[in-house]
Design goal:
single chain, mainly alpha, two-stranded antiparallel ribbon, 5 helices, EF-hand-dom_pair, signal, calcium ion binding
Length: 78
Amino acid sequence: MKNRLVILAVLLATSFSAIALDVKQRFDHLDSNKDGYLTKNELDAQPQLLKQFQRWDTDQDNRVSLVEFKNFLTINLH
């Protein structure tokens, strides 16, 4: 029984790490100028993402940081 719990804990930790890495990879892919922020110009080619821009940009500085991107995805995927 203890072995099963340990295996389950390892699998959960691994899946959360994989999700975090996937979010970072998606962000990096969208961040075409590699400045660490997403802008509307970078999302022009993806209108479905551009529609979400204002919701992601929580500090209203017209750019989306990795933290804002991650927070939005984390909150809205539950």
